[in-house]
């Protein structure tokens, strides 16, 4: 089972692919960012995001996807741009018929650190430990995407255990 985690953004979108290995443990397959900062214009950035996400989905063939929910930001212009990126991401995932869930930042923090108000450093450290990585994934957007994927993987495992009873 492969889970794609996404931390949406208009300029930088983090992604992380996690596989459940034969020992039923999470294993990192790939992570990184889709960086559209060199692309001019919102429409062009959204097309770039769609195309790059499609390429990643075709390459890694995830079974499930999880996207971090947008929380209210003080800068409405930024919130609107991120909402547009989320719309493109949602469209791309739907076209690939990927079952998708959304998680708030606090739910992700709770799942990864057992503390819903954990700070970014605590989440990143737990991502590193849980996936057996030598260092914290960089940039932050990629580490956040891996945390979202871990959150969903845990949810899927819990659902499977409940279904078996």
Keywords:
165 residues, alpha/beta, Nucleotidyltransferase, domain 5, five-stranded mixed β-sheet, 5 helices, 51% helix
Indicate the topology.
Elements (H helix, E strand, L loop, with lengths): L1 E6 L4 E9 L5 E10 L6 H19 L3 E5 L7 H20 L4 E4 L1 H9 L6 H11 L9 H25 L1
Parallel strand pairs: 1-4, 4-5
Antiparallel strand pairs: 1-2, 2-3
Summing up helix and strand content along with how strands pair, one would put the structural category as: alpha/beta
Mean pLDDT: 93
**Major pleated sheet:** 5 strands, mixed
Structural shape: globular
CATH-defined architecture: 2-Layer Sandwich
Percentage of residues in helical conformation: 40-55%
* Total number of distinct structural domains: 1
Overview of the structural elements:
- This protein is of the alpha/beta class.
- The chain has one domain: Ribonuclease H-like superfamily/Ribonuclease H (Nucleotidyltransferase, domain 5, 2-Layer Sandwich).
- 51% of the residues lie in helices and 21% in strands.
- The chain has helices spanning 42-60, 76-95, 105-113, 120-130, 140-164; strands spanning 2-7, 12-20, 26-35, 64-68, 100-103.
- The longest helix is centred in the last third of the chain and has 25 residues, at 140-164.
- The relative contact order is 0.21.
- The mean pLDDT is 93.
């Amino acid at each position: 089972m492969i889970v794609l985690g996404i931390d949406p953004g208009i300029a930088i979108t983090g992604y992380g692919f996690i596989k459940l290995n034969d020992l039923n443990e999470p294993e990192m397959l790939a992570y990184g960012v889709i960086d559209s900062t060199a692309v001019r214009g919102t429409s062009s950035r959204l097309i770039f995001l769609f195309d790059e996400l499609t390429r990643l989905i075709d390459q890694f063939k995830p079974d499930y996807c999880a996207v971090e929910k947008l929380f209210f930001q003080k800068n409405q212009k930024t919130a609107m741009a991120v909402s547009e990126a989320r719309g493109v991401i949602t469209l791309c995932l739907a076209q690939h018929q990927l079952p998708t869930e959304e998680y708030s930042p606090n739910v992700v923090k709770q799942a990864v650190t057992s503390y819903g108000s954990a700070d970014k450093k605590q989440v990143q450290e737990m991502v590193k430990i849980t996936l057996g990585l030598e260092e914290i994934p960089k940039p932050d957007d990629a580490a956040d995407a891996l945390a979202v994927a871990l959150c969903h993987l845990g949810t899927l495992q819990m659902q499977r255990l409940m279904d078996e009873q």
